[in-house]
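Worked problem 6 (solution included).
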Amino acid sequence: MTALRAVKNDIDSGGIADIRSILIENGYWPIPVKGKRPHIKGWSKLRATTAIIASWDRGYLDHTNTGILCGNDLVAIDIDAPTQTACDKLIARLMKIPAAENAPRRTGRAPKCMFLFRAIEPGKKGITPEFTVDGQKHQVEILRDGQQFVAFGDHVETCKPYLWENGSPLDIEATDLPIITSEQISAFLVDSEAILASMGERVKEEPKSKRNAAGGKSFWQQVNSAALADLNKWVPALFSGSQYQSGTGAWRVSSDELGRALQEDISIHPDGVQDFGREKPATPIDLVEEFGGAPNPKAAADWLCEHIGILPADLGWEHRQAVAIITGRSALPKPANDDVKSPVAVFEDPFTPAACGGLMADISQWILDTSRRRSPEFAVMASIAFMSVFYGRRVVGPTGCGVNLYLAGIAGPGFGKEAPLQRLVKLLQDSDMSYLVGAGEVSSASAIEKILRRKPVVVMPWDEVGDVLEAINAKGTGNWAATIRKAMLELYSKSTGVWFGKETMDDERIGAPIHCPSLTVVGTSTPTRFYGGLSEKNLSDGFAARMIFIAPTKRPERGNPRDNGLAVPEPLRSAIKDAQKCFPWPSMNSQGNWRAADVQPSLYEVAWKDAAAEKAWLAIEDWQESEIERDETRDGLVGRLAENAIRLATLRALSRDPSQPSVNVGDMRWAHAIMLASVRSLDDGVAKYMSSSQFEQLCQAILSSLRCSRGGSMYRAELLKRRGISGSDTRTFDAAIVRLQETGDIEKTDGKRFVLSRASGG
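Solution. The predicted structure is:
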């Protein structure tokens, strides 16, 4: 690397304005910063021009530092590691990424440092938990769209200029930065978390939504209510140009101050906040996040509490550590005592045979040993599916739910998706349980019902679950496949109840119940086909939340099996028979009831091992609730996380000890690790394969409509009615318009009428 280079704002380049102008020329988005943070309203969406830079000299003289906005393909990897040893290990891992040695490196307070890369695909910001190493907090953060970092000026703690090594944004254009992929970022975050966990103790705490007896409101709701009751103390501080309207008692923030088109202002009233630009209500916490630069809801809530003079604790804020988990392939050694009493102990990689324990470990290992592509994730997925159907309609977990699951394995070609499903079926066949295997493909809910009336406990191995989703979500009348979704939504929670199926004109079927139907689905797909079949509705109606997503990120090792799983070894068959024999049936005749759809089966309850195990599950449930309260749109993604976790934990308890099963802390940590990996896989998949493609389709639909219009222009109201556009929400449509304006495809107008640029055919 080249020598360190210090650049002060008033030296080298002739002043602050010159530095910011050079950054624009080099393809970056500069922003004036006071200390470490900009104080310009709407700064995260500000795109600087030469004229805007000149205005900063007049209006923001105290913003003497210069920041750079991330996004526009710019990715900043911030290694916030104050100890040299930890920093060196993290940098060494980063340097394993191809061309990382060419990344510019910024240092403010050594050894902490930051590296710049260029992304070739959209993605979300990322962050590891905080860890304490030698008494100091350590963390790694990936800065992307909506975030910024200080590039030039003086560090607020050292009072010395930031240093650049290996070049800087002043002499390296944004397009010349080394490329980094989403997969490389995800792998680096996982390994960084493992590195920090091996050196210190996790300290980051998750919020618990504490309910009070008086109003039953969460912390977030109480902050918003308190802020609305005392607008004068915080609104002028957040929006310096806001106007109080005595007649209505509301504060008004004009479109000019927000940098929006006309009639897109915000009204802040004691009864609530209305954002007319977004055409939807908002909360005070939302406003502070978007316009005040708060990095997260908790920081926004703290800012509001400070301004209205109330302590967060008085509004119900309480710190509670959630179950801390390492989910990556690099992992800590397995604890000697699997029954650890603390719900915050770090768990190793859950996708290994040893992590599963007991019968699942034996099944997973056999699948790996007989596969040409040895995918631990898919081997564990198949073993979970086996346990789910093996104990389906026989047990309930400590919280009273069944153990049926919907599992989806997502990976590209060459990841060995076929073998685990084949081994699952072979295992059931060779263990004299072929009656538990259902259809590999169904065309309607009626088909599922027909199967369950013959086999009330069944596993359906679907080779291409993406095709099923595409059929379910296909539009048009007469789409019988659409009924599959409704049936799966109902059956997920009916494994301890009664399902009547679909009523027909057939008198023999009216009112005929299916007691405790236990449907397990396990399918595989490529990311493109799966997320191509998934719809926005599936992400909000609870369908996706009911599924467990398993998506390996590393290509599996190539094996050289002898028999390719053609025969199940005798020791494994014996282990399955032993588990069957020693299962504690709750009554003498319940074993026969297990397979009769019209008879209520007797269910065995797997209890908690101790209070610590239940506490671990409650911590998971608390995290789920706080995540939904932070962002209600997450309900469709994480709304069943805690329930799926207890189902998984119950199966692991049965795997370890089928004669006297009980769920312990180790079971909960393992299950939680799988569910966190599932949520991360879904978030990454939606961002990479679903959201971006739909967004691009919307942009193309807008351009197509404008090209077909007279004069290449069209009013907003008319454009919103066009095919391919009418189904989009206002925020997505506005984002597409901004993208097309920034790329020069359409002209920048007043927002009422859109005009195609000459370069795009206008």
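Discussion: Residues 8-14, 206-215, 319-346, 504-510 have pLDDT under 50 and may be disordered.
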